[in-house]
Amino acid sequence: MKQFTGKIAILGSGNIGLSLAKGLVKAGYAKPEQLILTRRNIANLAEFAALGYGVDADNAAAVAASDIVVLAVLPQQLNQLMEQIKPATVPAKQVFISVASGVSCADIRSKSYPELEVIRAMPNTAIAIGQSMTCVATDNAAAEHVEEVCRMFETVGAVVKINEDLMTAATALCACGTAFFLRAIRAASQGGVEIGFHADEALKMAVQTAKGAADLLLQMKSHPEQEIDKVTSPKGCTIAGLNEMEHNGFSSSLIKGIKLSALKAGALYTKE
């Protein structure tokens, strides 16, 4: 991978920020000394400091030294952070990446400078193992900067570029979606216990079956129904189980849950 030559500040180095930092270094995208990690209590970053990463409690100082700034704080903390770093922001030099849910590029510029290039990225918790599904969108950034951000997040999983008006929907499908699929696996393992397996066996079997099903779609580039057809035979046990689940609202409840999550995700950030 082509190495980045500038400096990257990750403001609010929690799970997502730290996972991204580790991914960038592991993939050879950047060296530890090119990254500046910030959080209120830098004692929590001692392990990273020992590995050569820059650590700082001063967000403005980190921004002043960087070319790419990653805003990895909660939506509720964003307004205060933007106010804090505005004096150190140089729109002609920097690109901002926001992973805050429900906050538009325009919202961020309204707290900074109108000409600031802002790119939104929505990863999920699988970023911790390099398996994130990250959606990327912008309303004003240059194409080469969008490609740079895509390269960054490809170090920790798959990336899809989407229109910004779909970012809240992406939060529901990809970020909240992790929990939905985990709940489905949990339910399958409970079914396994009910039909005779020990809990640990049932969970292992459900997890690997789910992983295999997902990998089938990714590697075969097929549609779920194509793969379902391969395991459903006339009057068979698979179709009987599928129909029972559908009669009880399996698909419709998942669809409704995703729609409600999208609605909630859009209301996380307050502009004031």
UniProtKB/TrEMBL annotation:
EC number: 1.5.1.2
Cellular location(s): Cytoplasm
Reactions listed under catalytic activity: L-proline + NADP(+) = (S)-1-pyrroline-5-carboxylate + NADPH + 2 H(+); L-proline + NAD(+) = (S)-1-pyrroline-5-carboxylate + NADH + 2 H(+)
Pfam families xrefs: F420_oxidored (PF03807), P5CR_dimer (PF14748)
GO cellular component, one term: cytoplasm
Predominant cellular place of this UniProt entry's protein: cytoplasm
Residues the entry annotates as binding NADP(+): 72-75
InterPro entries assigned: 6-PGluconate_DH-like_C_sf, NAD(P)-bd_dom_sf, P5C_Rdtase_cat_N, P5CR_dimer, Pyrroline-COOH_reductase
Keywords of the record: Amino-acid biosynthesis, Cytoplasm, NADP, Oxidoreductase, Proline biosynthesis
GO MF annotation terms: pyrroline-5-carboxylate reductase activity
Domain (Pyrroline-5-carboxylate reductase catalytic N-terminal): residue spans on this chain: 7-102
Binding positions for NADPH per the UniProt entry: 59
Domain Pyrroline-5-carboxylate reductase dimerisation, residue spans: 164-265
GO BP of this protein: L-proline biosynthetic process
Pathway: Amino-acid biosynthesis; L-proline biosynthesis; L-proline from L-glutamate 5-semialdehyde: step 1/1
Domain of life: Bacteria
Protein family per UniProt: Belongs to the pyrroline-5-carboxylate reductase family.
Described purpose of this protein according to its UniProt entry: Catalyzes the reduction of 1-pyrroline-5-carboxylate (PCA) to L-proline.
NCBIfam families from the UniProt entry: proC (TIGR00112)
Name of the protein in question: Pyrroline-5-carboxylate reductase
Organism: Pedobacter antarcticus 4BY
